[in-house]
Amino acid sequence: MAACGAEMHINPEMEVLWSEVKPSHSNMSAPPHPQPPTKGASHGAGDFSYVGIDAILEQMRRKAMKQGFELNIMIVGQSGLGKSTLMNTLFKSKVSRKSVVSTPEERIPKTIEIKSISHDIEEKGVRMKLTVIDTPGFGDHINNENCWQPIMKFINDQYEQYLQEEININRKKRIPDSRVHCCMYFIPPTGHCLRPLDVEFMSRLSKVVNIVPVIAKADTLTLEERDFFKQTIREGLRANGIDVYPQEEFDEDSDDRMINDKIREMIPFAVVGSDQEYQVNGKRLLGRKTKWGTIEVENIAHCEFAYLRDLLIRTHMQNIKDITSSIHYEVYRVRRLNETNAQPNGQPPNTLVNPQQANGVAAQHQVLTHEM
């Protein structure tokens, strides 16, 4: 253009665009590759390759933060194993039923009762409705035959209640989820092997709910006794075909399998619970004080509480809920709908035909709401 003696006039706006697309002489031999957007960088005209698909993560986060989360945990085991204390330790709050409902003297019920209490918990802007379901009376009698049946019925009642809400013509935008996501089963620290009661309960319930077995009050065992007991329990679970969480058949890929294999090697978790704080080396720690020293609850050299907490809350909470919804509840839903279709009038016996009747079943157990 200079050789022709012509002068070129560029619009100021076009000049900006030209400066953005004008290639550098040093890069003429190799066209520049698009660079991935850096965190915090402004996207738009400066990054022609950016579409914005990754923004869905922020949208999902905002929606989840607005809706909050629900987690329903059932605790099963005979009296005196520290179930309430462990739940308080897990959430560092008074979340167990006994911590909220103070009674002068709680006697062992003649039959198994199902009692639940709900809490609204918030941490760093994340809200969660936690429901702790207790089963006082389990394993506390001379004859414990079929003591798993009321618990099985309760779990199925929650599936039924959810199903009836789901098939309603005018169903709610967000169905309240009272389904049991996880059942923590407390094994007494006998140091020997699984009892017939343990085998019967886990064999039956592992088919309808995620079971996480724990050895209660593990500080009563030496390290050698603890390791031997854990190995004996794992062998008992395999011998009886009991599939506890995380179930191997539900691993989604090789990465999941590698992580879950390490967890399966640690099951059952040998735990110690305590909601008491003590001063240890200048730090305030949760623990149990003895004449020989302080057992630190969150110290993995002392017990496996930290591994249990990470599994239930920090790493696998959503997976536990997903398996409840897509596996356990789905099995129940398919079976119930097949039963419905098999009946002449399209309705099997004991079907909850409307939400009012479903709420009637839920009202059979005591539900207390406590906001923290």
UniProtKB/TrEMBL annotation:
Compartments (UniProt record): Cytoplasm, Cytoskeleton
SUPFAM superfamilies found in the cross-reference section: P-loop containing nucleoside triphosphate hydrolases
Keywords of this entry: Cell cycle, Cell division, Cytoplasm, Cytoskeleton, GTP-binding, Nucleotide-binding
Domain Septin-type G: 67-339
Gene3D superfamilies: P-loop containing nucleotide triphosphate hydrolases
InterPro entries assigned: G_SEPTIN_dom, P-loop_NTPase, Septin, Septin3
Membrane-spanning segments: none
Domain of life: Eukaryota
Pfam families xrefs: Septin
Region entry Disordered, spans: 22-44
GO molecular function annotation: GTP binding
Any one GO CC term of the record: cytoskeleton
Gene Ontology BP terms: cell division
Predominant localisation class: cytoplasm
Family recorded in the similarity comment: Belongs to the TRAFAC class TrmE-Era-EngA-EngB-Septin-like GTPase superfamily. Septin GTPase family.
Protein name: Septin
Organism field: Salvelinus namaycush (Lake trout)
